[in-house]
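Researcher: Quick sanity check before group meeting.
Model: Go ahead. Protein one:
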Amino acid sequence: MPRMQARWNGALIAESDDVVMVEGNAYFPPEAVSHAHLRPSATHTVCGWKGTASYYDLVVDGAVNRDAAWYYPTPHDAAAHVRGRIAFWRGVTVSEAR
């Protein structure tokens, strides 16, 4: 897997060459994510095969992108490979690092 990065609002949110792709989404290891830009959200959703997802808002220079990052703290066995990894959407650009 090439080195991948996630950017939003001009900020580098995550970068790693240890990314797991699932259903077109890049799941970054938590240590590769800038936690300074994450704010816990009260949102949770349920995926039939992965389990219950928890969310973070992204905060960059005072701008907030609500529920733009998610992770599975205790996924079902079929999704154990994404446990704790963080994925992004809602305008976050995920691409190969340059």
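Researcher: Fine. The other one?
Model: Protein two, sequence then structure:
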Amino acid sequence: MRHNKKRVIKICEELTAFLLRMGATEIESKLQREAGHYRLTYRADYTPACRGELEELKEYFNRSGRFGAVEEYWELAGSSDMGDGSELLLIGMMTEQADIQLTDAQVELKLMI
């Protein structure tokens, strides 16, 4: 259980940092613990020039991986200031379900972890 909480905290940290890099000036987040998983919702504005990177986020979150290997790698990866997307790819691998909606002014992320 402790690892699940640490994983959720790290995911929240990475998504918040990513949205800030996308130019967000206002970020709303909601975390709900449900039976067997967590539901995470983010809403944020973004800089229009960053729309392509947000579109790529959909690709990251539509990949799947072996959870055990991902968990082990996550621990080894630790914190990184590199913007290569590796942390986002790991989040995508640990996400059971993801829905990303973009408008001209806002992004909404809904994840089940």
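Researcher: One line on it for the slide.
Model: The chain has one domain: 2-112.
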